[in-house]
Amino acid sequence: MAENSTFVYGSELQGRGYATRTDLIFGFMTTTFGAIAYGSAVLDLILIKNIKIFHSAFGFFWATRSVAEMFMDVSYALYTGPVTILQIKHMNPYVSIVVYHYAFTFAYLQCIMNLVIAMNRFVAVWFPMRYTTIFSKRICWFVAIFGGCQSISIPALYIIFPYQNIAYGPRFYANVFPKCSADMKRNYSLLAYVLVKTCFIIACCGTTAINFTTFCKIGHVRYTSITRFKSEEFKRDIRLFVLGVAQDIFMMFIAFTILLCNTQTDVSIIGALLSYDGVIFIYIFNTVSMVIFNPECRRFVFGKTMARVAPKNDGTTTFVSSHAPYFASTPAPLTTAHQSRTRRSYQCVRGSKMRRVDSGGAQCICLQLGWRRGRRS
C-alpha cells in the first residue's frame, strides 16, 4: 500500500529537472532536423506547384504526403526538441500523450500515401493507357480523404483498448509506456507495437513488393520495346519510379529500427537518433532524392536550364536560360537601350505554349520545333 500511495501516473514522461550534455545535443538536433524537414516539405509543395510533370495524380499524392509531413515535423521542432532541452520535471502527462497521437496520425497518413504512390507508378508502367481512367480527379480525392479519415480514426483505438497509451519521455529519448499502477508488470504498449508492426508490413513490405513488380515490367519493356523504353514519357516514369524506390529502401531501414528501439528505455543515443528522429530523416531524404532524380527539379532549384539556343552575329552559340534560378542571388543581365531598339522578337512554338525570345538581329534556332518570326519590338 505504501508503494501504491507514492505512485504518480506519467512519471516516465517527466523530465529530470536539469539538462545534461546529451539532452542538449539530442534536443537541439531534433529541433534542427524538425525545422529542416518542415522546410523540405514546403520546398516539395513549391516544386509540385511550379513544375508541370507533377501536375498529375502522382504530384497530388506527393503533395498530400508532404502536407502530412509538415504537420508531423511541427511536433518535432516545437515539442520534442524543446522538451528534451528543458527537461521539465512537473508536466501534465496528457500533453505528451496528445502530441504523440497528433504526430502518429500524420505519420500514418504519410505511410498510406507512400503506398499509394508506389501503386501509382505500378499503374503508370504496367497500364499506361488506363492511367488517366484509374487515377481520375475524383478517385484521387477519394483516396486522399479515405486515408485521412483512416489516420484520424487511429487514436480511437487507444480509447477502445485502455492502458495502451505511449508518449515521448524526454529522459529516454523515445516513446515510452506510462504504467497505470505501481504493481503493473507490463512495461510496453501492445497496441502501439501491433500498429507499428502492421505499418511496417503493409506500408514498407507492401510498397517493396509493388516496386519489385514495377521494376520487372521496366526490364521487360527494355528488352521487348526499345521505342517505348526510349520515349520521354517512359523515361519520366522510370525517374519517378527510381525516386520512390530510393525512399522506400531508406524508409524500410528506419521503420525496422523504430520497430526494434522506439519503445525501449535503455536505447543508446545513436539508436535514439535512428529510431525517433529517423522519421524526419526520411522526410528530408524525400526532398533530396526528389531534386537528385529529377532534372526538372534541379533546373528549377538551381536555374541550370538551357532550353533554347540562339546564335550570335559572330557565329558562336549562346545558351539562354528559360527562367531565372529559384535561389538566384543576382538578377539576369539586361540588354542595352540600343539592343532593345534594334532587336527582333521571335516566338518559339512548342505544343500549345508560346515563348517570346530575343535575338540580336539574327535568325533564332529552336532545339525542339523551330522559331516563328513575330513583330518588331
From TrEMBL:
Residues 28-294 form the 7TM GPCR serpentine receptor class x (Srx) domain. The keyword Nucleus does not apply. InterPro entries: 7TM_GPCR_serpentine_rcpt_Srx. The chain crosses the membrane at residues 24-48, 99-127, 139-161, 191-219, 240-260, 272-293. Keywords: Membrane, Transmembrane, Transmembrane helix. This is 7TM GPCR serpentine receptor class x (Srx) domain-containing protein. Pfam families: 7TM_GPCR_Srx.
